[in-house]
## 1
Amino acid sequence: MQELLGHLNKVRGVGGTLLVSVEGLTMASQLRTGADESALAATIGELLGSAQRTAQHLGLGVPATFQAITDHGGLLILAAGPAYVAILTDAGANLSLLGIEAKPHLERIAARLAL
């Protein structure tokens, strides 16, 4: 799994990746920022839970993507099978394009999780 995240980290604009369970547990990590993986995974789990409750309330189904953009970078969370990949992005990264470029990597991660 580390190898797959490492390949994703080579995509332009990616500043680190974290594979998390829906419950907010770290499954694998390739963070470059030195962030606390467990705390970040737990926060992402809370964010996913809130997004799922909101989507359910609105009758939208299960969220597949979540993104946040700041002045200093961004966060792109994408579904990968039964888990999610959180991608920390550099400032100015195009999150829509990054989502497209990440798709084959997410498919490989989802396939590996299905084994």
Note: Strands lie at 14-21, 26-31, 65-70, 73-80, 83-89.
## 2
Amino acid sequence: MFLTIVSGTRGQGKTTLVRQYVADAVAAGRSVGGVVSPAVFEHGERAGYDLLDLRSGRQRPLARVVTSPAETPTIGTFRFDEAALAAGNAAIVSAVQDGLDVIAIDELGPLELEGKGWAPALAFALQACRTEQELVVAVRASLADKLPVRFPSSLWEHAKRLSPAANPRS
């Protein structure tokens, strides 16, 4: 299995780079699956993130900024939709099981370091991906060194590393 890590700062363009990487893989005739989490903006402000299943093309709300005192954030200022998290984990796992060439997981962050979010699917993928499969993960640069500790695998030390251009993008 090949591991590619896309890392950068918040808003730098990690998701954009993963989406381009996946599009290039499709153009090269490779099968793709997994998830990306594009930002959602309202009135010029980040309102949350959607979940895009790369295999089905289905997009749905994943996380939104908590705006009501009655809401409890899942992490930071965001409330994550449990059904979307379950669907995302299922999309990642099925992409691995079905032997797709490229499996994307965007983005790994504090939620995964707590064992939530995409953590179950990431742990599965690191163990179950076949030799010819490529796992592409996006992570904030400040958290990249914590992933190998939380999800031990020799794949981290041999990973290809990519960073988006310095211009901010979502």
Note: DSSP finds five helices and nine strands in the chain.
## 3
Amino acid sequence: MLRIYTDGGSRGNPGPSAYGLVAVKDGKIICEESRFLGVMTNNQAEYRGLIAGINKALELKAEEVEFVMDSQLVIRQMKGEYRVKSPGLIEIHRDAKALSSMIPKVHFIHVKRDELLIPRADELVNEELDRHQN
């Protein structure tokens, strides 16, 4: 099984944003990735990180994936426990759902900010934001 840890963040809300992801297979990190996203909200950046993780899983042709995030909102929306009310999240949520449906077995897991590899994903976000700071 593939496990992908993602985080997104913005400096300001909205503000300069980035995501970071760490992909793990058989207990080993197989990929780290981060990307600057421009100006958006924190929740939009969280979703962009998840979508990047889903795309990575599709690229790796994973049959079963756990997406691990510290964003309770995104995880609960992806699981259908919360409705998506924010106009800025409706389309991006729809994209994430459509992409994740292409993976045979998908699990969405919420963890605290300091658990597992979330701190590393957060570090990738901050490194990316630091590179793009004026």
Note: The chain has a mean pLDDT of 95.
